Amino acid sequence: MKLNILSRMIGLAAAGFFSAAVPVQAADTYPDRTIQMIVPYAPGGTTDLAGRIVAKAMGAAFGQSVVVENKPGAAGSLGVGQALRSVPDGYTMAVSGVSSTMIHDLLGRELPYDPKKDLNAVAYLGSSGMVVITGNNSGLKTLADIIERSKKEPGSISFGSAGNASPGHMATEYLASMAGIKMTHVPYTGDSALMTDLMSGRIDFATVGIASVFSHMKAGSVRPLAITSAERISTFPDVPTVAEAGDLAGYEADIWNLLVLPKGTPAAVDQKLNQTINQLMREKGVRESLLEIGFTAREMDIAEIQNFIQTEREKWGKVIRESNINVE
């Protein structure tokens, strides 16, 4: 009897040893086959371009193919949800931005995953500021003009965005909240119709991704008033930040991307991905390629990413409450 008990204990100990060794072994050999990176938007957009830059660099670093698969739908949550339901082995991942990471959840939208429980963020893939622009025929010369007029005549200034609760909408409501002003939001289904109305004067201004209006800014067909990032960008050094132009210390509203995997992925694999991506963010070629589409590379370890998510969640939750933004 004692021998049987001893044999069982040895067997259980051995099983525990081998199961504990699996993640380490997986990390030692990871990756040994093709990785799938899901971009939850259509090809050609800023997130897609940034994802492809990182995927190409990852493939070279790992010596394995990293295949980008576009899965648009539900404002990014469809593709992210697919990745988070995959086998947690490090071979399926997604690029997740602010909407799929927290905004949908903060608005109470029904999602195929719980961002607070299911989303395993392992790397920061860079950030891009947005730009506050107006038409060349607009009487608005500076961001201070918008704030001053809105204080005198609440609601008289109209601004466009690529949809309700889109990054541009959220960034402008954040600006309005900090400045203590009210403006009229005009949502569009995308940037194309928005730009037409902006340049024809049907709306007063808009806050949009830099990459989407880069050519317009270079050509001088729109007037940039401010950048939403914490710092000015090298490609447009004369454009002030919102914090500078609006006297709004601490204002920052960037479009950012995270690399996310399902919960349960071996911690050693998470760490290997984090360390590899951080190394790529230091490489000149990757940094310059990201900068060409308006993205700034930045390194974060996994603990810093978790703190970043919490800080952003608190910030945008406050904006949603104070601005009374809803699902519709």
TrEMBL record:
Signal keyword on record: yes
Top-rank lineage group of the source organism: Bacteria
Entry keyword annotation includes Metal-binding: no
InterPro entries: BUG (IPR005064), Bug_dom1 (IPR042100)
Signal peptide: 1-26
Pfam families: TctC
Keywords: Receptor, Signal
Annotated family: Belongs to the UPF0065 (bug) family.
Designated name of the protein: Tripartite-type tricarboxylate transporter receptor subunit TctC
Organism per entry: Pseudochelatococcus lubricantis
Taxonomy of the source species: Bacteria, Pseudomonadati, Pseudomonadota, Alphaproteobacteria, Hyphomicrobiales
